[in-house]
Amino acid sequence: MAEKANKVKARLPRGLVDRHPEDIRAVDEMLVKIRRVYELYGFEPVETPLIEYTDALGKFLPDQDRPNEGVFSFQDDDEQWLSLRYDLTAPLARYVAENYERLPKPYRSYRNGWVFRNEKPGPGRFRQFMQFDADTVGAPHVSADAEMCMMMADVLEALGIARGDYVIRVNNRKVLDGVLEAIGLGGDENAGRRLTVLRAIDKLDKFGPEGVRLLLGKGRLDESGDFTKGAGLDDEAIAKVLSYIETGEIEDNEGVQELREIEALCAAAGYDDGRVKIDPSVVRGLEYYTGPVFEAELLAEIPNEDGQIVRFGSVGGGGRYDGLVSRFKGAPIPATGFSIGVSRLMTALKNLGKLQTVETQAPVVVMVMDKDIESLGRYQKMVSDLRQAGIRAEMYLGGAGMKAQMKYADRRGSPCVVIQGGDERANGEVQIKDLVEGMRLSEEITDNTTWREARPAQFSVAEGEMIEAVKRVLAAQAEDRLA
Questions:
Q1: 131 is in an annotated binding site
Q2: 455 belongs to an annotated ligand binding site
Q3: Percent of the chain predicted with pLDDT > 70
Q4: At a CB cut-off of 8 Å and minimum separation 6, what does 473 contact?
Q5: Main EC class of this protein (predicted)?
């Protein structure tokens, strides 16, 4: 009874997921293609740690409804607060500031990795997810922002998204600031309410105009019964914000001029064919954006996890954050960047049938028929010879008998197994069992004539011919897959 009471329950924390081989390999393929585009644009890799000092990350997260404001934090033994990074941009700002004198300016870098949000988990909302960012630090002109938009378009096409099935939407926080000042939310004293308004606008694609109207006003009650407090604007102010979202009309200011310049630069490079568009509804939820902001949106209607046909929406975004590096340096340092939501984009590509992974052959299993040290050494030598020939292979390391070993090889998806018992060893031979052909024979062949004409599922070869025999089995299986 005591042993049962001390048993730990195996359970995955909420908002986290385990990753399986297929997804890991699919992401690896995606990252290679994204990295290729980033490097084509002249960006260089850099890597920062998962943990930073809390004050270095800053308090820029949206939806700060957790006790430690959206981040996972803990105290070091010297009583300094540390946090898991919530994005890849804030750590980059720290890295650039710390290494500013030795870095080329502008500094162009890319990085990918896990980020963490201490948020309430929900459908499609995870506490750990992967991002892949590219940033330019030290470029004051909007040509750097225009380049980010063009590069994101090239990334999506490199991943197989057809032109016309996506759009890079662009807006400017300076334009939005003009709208907010027009409704009386200028000044530092209204910073909190301004951010609430921006977050409400950012929910347009999720909740529609009526949902945004509620979030700009008293608040919104969702289907689960959770209430989100609104910005508390009056009807006139709400009407002005919604009018801007629908028409994009506002008096000329610096933000409007910057958008015109981005539009002209993208047109000059040939990206004015629907790939990059000005859109007044783009906001971005993070507080540190100071100028142009952009989002990559998939336009194709594809099945979601429940099989419903939906418009997938945003798979990445970014913008200009001229104040982030300046927090450390005390001087203006312009910067702009783009972040791809890797897990979300992978889901979209999978649902679109665009996720191509390199097929990884399961290992050939060398079965263990005798367990004395001399026999184990012979089996290990076979495995080593297979590996030296470039064939994935493993020696069975469990303690079970032949039947269980065959079941293990089937479960691993092994193409074939190598068997050498006492009789085979005495004759200097090994048995090769083609598991794929064996399965086909058992399922499809019903008469003796077809059986005799089929490829043998199990055969003997001289031990010195094992490598070539296994290669023939693998080649035949590959040919069958292409047929």
A1: yes
A2: no
A3: 90
A4: 415, 416, 432, 434, 437
A5: ligase
What pLDDT shows up at residue 277? Answer: 95
Peptide bond just before 106 cis, omega within 30 deg: yes
Q: Is 135 annotated as a binding residue?
A: yes
Look at residues 81, 28, 79 and name the one whose alpha carbon lies nearest to residue 59.
Answer: 81
Evaluate whether residue 115 is within a structural domain. yes
Residue 4 resides in a domain: no
Q: What is the mean pLDDT of the chain?
A: 87
Region of 60 please: left (phi>0), alpha (psi -120 to 50) or beta: alpha
Strands of the sheet with 335-341, listed across from one edge? 44-45, 107-116, 128-137, 335-341, 309-320, 292-303, 166-172, 276-278
Question: Is 25 flagged in the annotation as binding?
Answer: no
pLDDT digits (tens, 9 = 90+) for 243-252: 887 876 666 7
The reply, when asked if residue 87 is annotated as ligand binding, is yes
User: Computed over its alpha carbons, how large is the radius of gyration of the chain?
Assistant: 29
Bridge partners, residue 459, by sequence: 432
- Give, for 440, the enclosing helix (H) or strand (E): helix 435-444
- Cα–Cα distance for residue pair 466/419, rounded to 1 Å: 11
The C-alpha atoms of residue 148 and residue 153 are separated, in whole angstroms, by 9
Among residues 328, 352, 376, the one where a domain terminates is: 352
Cα 353 to Cα 21, 105, 153, 347, 453, distances in angstroms: 18, 41, 19, 10, 37
Residue 133 marked as a ligand binder: no
Residues 316 and 390 in one domain: no
Confidence of residue 284 (pLDDT cuts 50, 70, 90): confident
Q: How many structural domains compose the chain? A: 2
Torsion sign, CA atoms 300, 302, 304, 308: positive
Report the DSSP beta bridge partners of residue 167: 297
* Residue 233 near residue 217, CB atoms below 8 Å: yes
Q: Where in the sequence is the domain holding 48, given as residue range(s)? A: 14-352
